[in-house]
Amino acid sequence: MNVLNGACAVLVITLWTAGCATTAPASDSVRVTTTLADVTGCKLVGKVIVSETDPEKEARHQTVALGGNVLLRKTDEVWNGNAYQCAAAPH
Q1: CB burial class (10 A; 0-12, 13-18, 19+) of residue 24?
Q2: Nearest Cα to Cα of residue 68 among 86, 91, 55, 41
Q3: 30 Cβ contact list (under 8 Å, min separation 6)
Q4: Ranges of each domain in the chain
Q5: pLDDT tens digits along 1-30
């Protein structure tokens, strides 16, 4: 019985720590810019149109869903824009 209790304890601890070790979503790696020159030579992959509910998160998610890694925003106030796939995302 002690072996079973010990095995259960190890399993619980393993699952608990695995649940805490989350990877960053792909949308975190999206580079956001308002400068057209930052996407020179990049491929336009689609338009990003977001709602008012958490627009930054939604815009980054849409950019990744379209296959992009750079979001060219219309302005600093508006998260709508265009998603681009760039060989090396500008910094």
Answers
A1: exposed
A2: 86
A3: 60, 63, 64, 68, 69, 70, 71
A4: 26-85
A5: 565 555 444 444 444 444 444 445 677 789
pTM here is 0.69
Written as one string, the DSSP assignment of 41-89 is TPEEEEEE---SSSHHHHHHHHHHHTT-SEEEESSSS---EEEEE-SS-
Kindly state the tokens that stand for 12: 């619980």
Measured CA to CA in angstroms, residue 30 lies from 2, 65, 71, 91 at distances of: 50, 11, 7, 11
Q: Is 32 helix (H, G, I), strand (E, B) or coil?
A: strand
- Tens of pLDDT along 39-50? 999 999 999 999
